[in-house]
Design a protein that fits this description.
By secondary structure, the chain is of the alpha+beta class. It has one domain (9-61). The chain contains 1 helix and 2 strands, in the order ββα. The longest helix is centred in the C-terminal third of the chain and has 23 residues, at 39-61. The termini are far apart.
């Protein structure tokens, strides 16, 4: 059985939840927890995630 490779970076979404450190780098996005909030709050967090992912993709190109 092959081992799972170690990631280059691990992303923590925040939401006041601790995550174990894995990989070579850790980035905490500090997103608000939309639990119990409106659909609009969930949509805003989704948009924030999309922007951050797109930013990571751009950084990977350069």
């Amino acid at each position: 059985m092959d081992e799972i490779p170690s990631p280059d970076i691990a992303i923590s979404m925040g939401c006041d939840v601790g995550c174990p450190f894995v990989g070579r780098a850790m980035d905490d996005w500090g997103l608000p927890d939309p639990t119990g909030k409106s659909d609009e709050a969930f949509v805003e967090v989704i948009k924030q995630i999309e922007r951050k992912i797109n930013s990571l993709k751009l950084r990977a190109l350069f």
